[in-house]
Amino acid sequence: MAKRKGCPICGRPPATATAPFCSAACANRDLANWMTGRYAIPARAETDEDDDALAPTREREE
């Protein structure tokens, strides 16, 4: 059986109603961290080169 991890905010055991958080307060704190930009998923900046790679290619005329 897999061992359950604690709340990602405070480490206490998670509550069933708010899993994986221990309480609504920790769930709200996590949401606030996302909303204010404290958490972020790294992304690559788009460039014109990326757009060219997705453009349809023309077949060569022989």
Q: End-to-end distance, in Å?
A: 65 Å
Query: Nearest-angstrom radius of gyration?
Result: 22 Å
Broad shape: elongated
Give, in order, the helices and strands. HH
Which characteristics define this entry?
62 residues, mainly alpha, elongated
Short synopsis of the structure:
This protein is mainly alpha-helical and 62 residues long. The chain has two helices and no strands.
Would you give an account of this structure?
It contains 2 helices and no strands. By secondary structure, it is mainly alpha-helical. The longest helix has 12 residues, at 24-35. The protein has helices at 24-35, 48-54.
List the helices and strands and how they pair.
Layout (H helix, E strand, L loop, with lengths): L23 H12 L12 H7 L8
